[in-house]
Each structure stands twice: as C-alpha cells, then as structure tokens.
Amino acid sequence: MSYFNKNSSPSNLTRSSHYRVKGLVLKHRDMGESDRLVTVFTKEYGKLVFSVRGARKTKTKLGGHLEPLVYGDYLIIRGRSLDSVIQGQILVPFKTIKNDLKKMAESIYVADLVDHFLQDADPQPDMLDLTLAILTQQDELASNGDLIMRIFEIKLLEETGFSPALQRCADCGIEINPSRGQKYPFSAASGGLLCSECSLSHSNWVRSITGDTLLLMNYIRSNPVAKLTGLVIDGDWLSELESVSRWYISYIVDKPIEALVFLDQVRHSLKQ
Ligand SMILES: [Zn+2]
Predict the structure, then answer these.
(1) pTM of the model
(2) By C-alpha distance, which of 34, 20, 96 is closest to 63?
(3) pLDDT-flagged residues of the chain (< 70)
(4) Are 82 and 50 in contact (CB under 8 A)?
(5) pLDDT value at position 272?
(6) How far is the CA of 172 from the centre of ligand 1 (A)?
(7) From the CA of 259, how far away is ligand 1's center (Å)?
(8) pLDDT tens figures, 116-157
(9) pLDDT at residue 63, rounded to an integer
(10) What domains sit in the chain, N to C, each tagged with a CATH number?
C-alpha cells in the first residue's frame, strides 16, 4: 500500500500537510461519539497524540490498527489543533500478549511507564527500541514475565538518566563494593547507595537493600535484554528487586501508575 505519492498529491493539500510515522500505540481514550485520541510513541518524533475520526465505528479497520500495544506505520494529516491518523498498517501486532491476561497486564504496565517517563515530542529512539525488545520477549517467551518487568524497569531508568548509583555513594562518590548477605542504605532522593557516613544525614526516602539485589541490578544493567530474559532467578530475590524498583520509580514519577493497580489485580486473581 502506498500512503503518499509526492507526484500526485491532492490539489487542496500541500506536501507538508501529511507525514508518516512508525510507532507503538501506548494508550487511547474516547473522544465524542465515535472518535478516539491515541498516544503513539513514534520513532521519528517521540510521544505524540493524534485524533482518529470514526475509530470506534465497527466497520473501520483503522481503529484496530491503533489499539494499545500495536506497532504500526501511520499516515498523519496535520490539523489546526490536533493531527489525525488517516491510514495505518500493523507492523507488529504482539498477538500472543493479547491472548494472555498476565502478559497483557504486564505489557500495559510497560506502556504506562513509558508514557510517564516520556516528554511530548521528544524523540527517544533507543527507548523505543528497548520497549519493543521487551514486548518482543513478552510475546515470544512462554513465561518469565516477572523477570522481564524487572529488566525493563532497570533498563528504562538507565535510558532516562535515572539509573541509581550501585557501586559508589550517591552523595560523596566513595566507592562501595556490595557483597552478598550484607545490607546497604539506598536513597531514592540521592539516587542510589549511600556510604555509612552520608546515610546519617538522610532519613526520608531511604531504605535498606541487600548486596544480592544490588549485584543483580548491576548484572541486569550490564547485559543486553535478550541475554537476561532466560535467567532463572529465585522468587525472593525477584521480590526484593520488585519492591526496590517500584519504590524508586514511585519517587521519580511522583504520581500513581494506574496500570500497576490492574497488574496487581490480575496477579492476585491468577494466584487464587
Ligand atoms: Zn557518602
């Protein structure tokens, strides 16, 4: 399908009135009777919001091409206040994710977290690559979703410049070599580990973290996603990492992450 032929543009539209993007749909919400607003993490321009006319009418294909967690190729027409998607093609549907409730809830959490960390219209191609790599692992692997979420959180913090100090004091910079079986003070406000001296001057947003978890975080940070997702890691170890990551991310984001509520509900219901 050809979206745009520069030699035969309609007379009432100039070339610059259209543009094309490739992107991952992060979320959508209804607008008016039949339209939708979609938030797309585009490769070219970062996070953009588009309107989609008639997206909720059952006969239009376009709505399905703009469901959350679809990676697609879209033709956009510029509008006065909001640009609109007028054509779309699904490049990666992430079908397995959509047929599995836990994977779906986890992937919506991924999309929500990305949405929280991204500024509007700020291109972040590496972050998009990371998000797609994570969703691909979710789509292709039979399980291990908990580990994949932990990998995503650590890599996302790294991509966005919030990676915590794990081998030095976040305040004074002195080197710290975490060892297994030991506990260390970790400050969300300072952004990482604290040496014993600096920890005396902090009380808010400080918690203790085991050397084991620090070593795991460091290992995840130093290795590519594809090498990490097959690891088998003890449940307690992953639980501490989850607790630390959630706590640290909640400090940075500073507002509720709605998808976490849904994810927790799904996990709870599957345990029963
Ligand atoms: Zn220090």
Answers:
(1) 0.90
(2) 34
(3) 1-15, 58-59
(4) yes
(5) 77
(6) 4
(7) 36
(8) 999 999 999 999 999 999 999 999 987 789 999 999 999 999
(9) 81
(10) 15-93 (2.40.50.140), 96-163+204-271 (1.20.1440.120)
- The DSSP call for residue 202 is -
Torsion 210-248-263-116 (CA) sign:
negative
Distance between Cα 212 and ligand 1 center (Å):
20
What is the Cα 22 distance to its own chain's centre? 17
CA 187 to centroid of ligand 1, rounded, Å: 11
Largest CA distance in the chain: 72
What pLDDT does residue 2 have? 39
- 8 Å CB contact between 33 and 46: no
Handedness of CA 24, 127, 141, 113 (dihedral sign): negative
User: Distance, CA 110 to ligand 1 centroid (Å)?
Assistant: 33
Ligand 1 center to 241 CA (angstroms):
23
Q: How far from each other are the two terminal CA atoms of the chain, in whole angstroms? A: 48
Cα of 188 from ligand 1 centre, angstroms: 14
